[in-house]
Amino acid sequence: MAHRPFREHFAPPTEPYFRWRGGEITRIEGFSDAVFAFAVSLLVVALEVPHTYAELLGVLRAFPGFIASFVLLYLFWSYHYRYFRRYGLEDNFSKWLNAALLLLVLFSVYPLKFLFGLMFQGLFGSSGLHGTHAISLSSEQEWSGLLYIYGAGLAGIFCCYAGLYQHAYNLRARLRLTRAEEILTVSAVRGYAIAIGVCLLSLLMVKLGRNAEAGWVYFLIAILVPISTRWHKRAARRAEEAWRARRQAEAR
User: Fold this and answer.
1) DSSP code of residue 51
2) Phi, psi at residue 126, to the nearest 5°?
């Protein structure tokens, strides 16, 4: 009895209603993974080992901001991974839009690190933070500027993902997407559109001088996008069940 290679036991599972068309890791994905890895390296809390206990405490107090930034970058990478596994597109449009996405990810690294560092510094207190670990804003204008930079970068990233999925949907005949796969593709486009709308709403609130509320607005993404995704998944399941029922009827 033949045994599967060891690594196949840990191969990532495909989606129930989506056939992954991406095969081996392409040059686009390899380059993108390197860029994401470099972005994570830019988040490193300290570039050298602390020399005193006080410096060690400063690094540890800055670590929650690093974790939050890392999680967000990991989510961006997972979105990228899923897209190229789903469709396996390597045309010029996908290459250039992917390049724009990677550029925006690198652009957003320091604003992410600064914003989350400032947020957790406020939650846990700034005592013990000094030198490069101390983060501060000297005016309300600087706080507004930080929110503008963060919101614009995040909206740009979501625009790139929405554009990639819309491109895949436009090529649905070439990709031979099933009805369920079309629904899930539309779901992704609408989910990213919702995220873009939330980013624009936050920027509008900054413009109106509501900086405190502008930051909390981003939690709407975690509420609205899952609702939209769940609704589309149910529609995809119904489409898949209808397709299987037709196949069974034709087989008879």
Assistant:
1) S
2) -100, 5
What are φ and ψ of residue 70, in 5° steps?
-65, -40
Single-letter residue type at 171: L
Say how far apart CA 106 and CA 108 lie, in whole Å: 5
Cβ atoms of 155 and 95 closer than 8 Å: no
- pLDDT tens, 53-66? 777 776 777 778 78
Is 106 in contact with 31 (CB distance < 8 Å)? no
Q: How far apart are CA 188 and CA 155, in angstroms?
A: 15
Domain boundaries, the chain: 24-136, 138-252
Q: For the segment 201-219, what is each residue's pLDDT rounded down to a tens digit?
A: 999 999 998 888 888 899 9
> Contacts for 174-180 with beta carbons within 8 Å, 24 or more apart?
175/21, 175/87, 178/17, 178/19, 178/239, 178/240, 178/243, 179/239, 179/240, 179/242, 179/243, 180/17, 180/18, 180/236, 180/237, 180/239, 180/240, 180/243
